[in-house]
Structure formats: C-alpha cells, structure tokens
Specification:
Oligomer: single chain
CATH class: Alpha Beta
Structural class: alpha+beta
Strand content: 25-35%
Number of domains: 1
Strand order of the largest sheet: 3-1-13-12-8-9
Shape: globular
Mean pLDDT: 91
CATH topology: Phosphatase 2c, domain 1
CATH architecture: 4-Layer Sandwich
Radius of gyration: 18 Å
Order of helices and strands: EEEEHHHEEEEEEEEHHHE
Number of helices: 6
Largest sheet: 6 strands, antiparallel
Amino acid sequence: MASTEIIPYRVRAFQVPKEGQDPKDCEDAFRLRGLPTAWDGAPTTLPVRRLRAAVTDGATQSSFSRLWARLIASAAIETGAPLSKCNSLLQKLSRLARVWRQEAERTLPAERPWYVEDGLDRGAHSSLLSLDIDRGRWQAVAVGDTSLFQIRNGAILRAFPLEHPEDFDQRPWLLSSISGKNRGLASRIRTTEGRAQSGDTFLLATDALSRWFLASEGWREMLRLCEDGCDHQAFADLVDEERRAGRLEDDDSTLLVARIP
C-alpha cells in the first residue's frame, strides 16, 4: 500500500447494553476517524489513507463512566502524538478529566446529595483500545481488557492484549478521570504492531465479547453475520442467545469491525 493510496475500508459496529437496559445507558463507546460521532455503526465504506479506530469500556462501578469512555474514544482518534507514549496519553487524560468534570457537573443540580459529590471525587474509569492502520502496517495500544483480533484466512492471526479466556478473570487496570489514579500508567500501556494486507479483518471488542471469542470461537459467527450483511437486530439476537446459554457474560457488548478490501 503506497503512502498516498486511499483504501476503501469496510467498517461497521454493533452495540448491545446489559439485558433489560436502554441502549442510551450503555457505557461502552466506539469511534472511527472520518465518521461522525453520531455514526450508528451501520455498514459503510470509509475511504482513507490511514484508518484510526478506538473502542472503550466504561466501568459500571464509577460515576459518569459513559461520558468518560466517549471522551477517551474521541481523543484516541485525534491526530497528534501517539498514545503509546505515556506522557502523551497522560496529557490527553489531564485535558479530558477537566472536560469530564465540567460536563458531569452541568447535568447535576446545584444542590445534590453528598454521595453524588463523592462519586465525582472518586472519578470515572475506562479501558482503551486504539488501532492505527497505515501503509500496510498496523499498531494497537491497549489499557485494560478491551481486545483486538486480526483475522486472516479464516483464523486468528493475532489477539491483543489478552490471548486466553482465563486472562479475563483478573481485574483490569483502567484509565481514570482522577490524575493521581493514573500513576504507574507507563507500566500498564500495552502496544503491538504487525503487517496488514488485503482481506484482513480487524475486530475490536469489549471484554465480554472478547472472552467469548476466545472461549467459544464466537468470532467465527460474528464474521459470518457481517459477511451476510446482517442488521443490528441479528447481532442483538445472537448476543441474547449466547447470554441465555451462559456462554456470554451479561455485560455491555460492543464490536467494531474493519476489513481491508
């Protein structure tokens, strides 16, 4: 792939909240540079020289984690210094933390219960997975357990940052909207890179789906659905079926798919 060549990537995304919850309460986020933040994930062709994508997973136990996850995902696809550099990421997080606090407080009444203020002081937390494909090479950056899968010729060529179902049993380290809680970030950032070629498919998935992919080869069913041009309801039905069977954890589930034609 030449540096000036425009590649018509085929992209789409799916998102299903926890059972019984409204989609607007989903605490995951996904972003692709070149598509509006309001993109609903419908299949489309994205003609770009360089693809940048991000998926984030806000922690349910923290306050305003949906807002925090969306801010991080949006910042991850911006131009500028690579997120793999700790100082660059810390600078972004510091800026985003101020925006997060302002946006969160804007939605709250002036007089609010102490526990709401306490929640703001404890901050929000989110994973991060970003993917950058440029001139036949790709790089990924991860903090937490949102994972990437590179599929080639009907097999997983690479799983990152977690490679086995049991890896998801550990509590992940997440990005916080409280600066002090991001100490030690340098040792928590995971990076990897590889070659990309025509026909490769990249799956970016939050933890419940990622674990299911590795434990039950669920990625094969997902690829089949995408190739069949399935709608969002077909994806939601599959997620519901796997949850009822006990093979897929009942958690917010987000999948972003990018294929190189």
